[in-house]
């Protein structure tokens, strides 16, 4: 059965498990549990993500390219290797600065 997750107990290079697709946002699940999930996302140039508010803390790490992460009105320009934690209940907007890939980890415990 294909869960959409990566194969467990097998090494992989995160930035290589997802490709850029023209004019698209692509999401691949690495691990999905009731207590949270880890996914990797690629965003092509000119694409964006809508502003949202999550009820859980969210860890974001840029693994290729650059993106602007706006949290409660405060801008953070992140480049490859940089990370930020978006606090639960804070509005956030992820704006591409060219195309980029990121890891997103959502931790659900403590806020149900």
Give a short overview.
With 112 residues, this protein is an all-beta fold. It has a single domain (14-107), classed as Sandwich (Jelly Rolls). Helices cover 0% and strands 54% of the residues.
What are its keywords?
112 residues; mainly beta; seven-stranded antiparallel sheet
Give a written overview of the molecule.
Strands 1, 2, 3, 4, 5, 6 and 7 form a seven-stranded antiparallel β-sheet that branches. The protein has one domain: Jelly Rolls. The mean pLDDT is 91. It is globular, with a radius of gyration of 14 Å. The chain is built from no helices and seven strands. It is mainly β and 112 residues long.
This entry's quaternary arrangement is single chain
Give me the number of helical elements: 0
Distance between the termini: 30 Å
Number of domains: 1
Biggest β-sheet strands, sense, barrel: 7 strands, antiparallel
Low-confidence stretches: none
Q: Would you identify the CATH architecture?
A: Sandwich
> Could you report the average pLDDT, rounded to the nearest whole number?
91
Fraction in helix: under 10%
Return the string of H and E elements: EEEEEEE
Q: Count of DSSP E strands?
A: 7
CA gyration radius, whole angstroms: 14 Å
């Amino acid at each position: 059965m294909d869960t959409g997750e990566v194969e467990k107990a097998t090494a992989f290079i995160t930035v290589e498990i997802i490709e850029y697709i023209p004019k698209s946002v692509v999401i691949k699940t690495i691990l999905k549990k009731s207590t949270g999930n880890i996914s990797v996302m690629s965003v092509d140039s000119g694409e964006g993500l809508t502003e949202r508010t999550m009820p859980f803390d969210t860890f974001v790490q840029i693994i290729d390219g650059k993106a602007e992460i706006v949290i409660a009105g405060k801008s953070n320009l992140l480049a490859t290797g940089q990370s930020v934690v978006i606090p639960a209940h804070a509005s956030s907007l992820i704006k591409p600065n060219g195309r980029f890939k990121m890891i997103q980890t959502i931790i659900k415990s403590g806020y149900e």
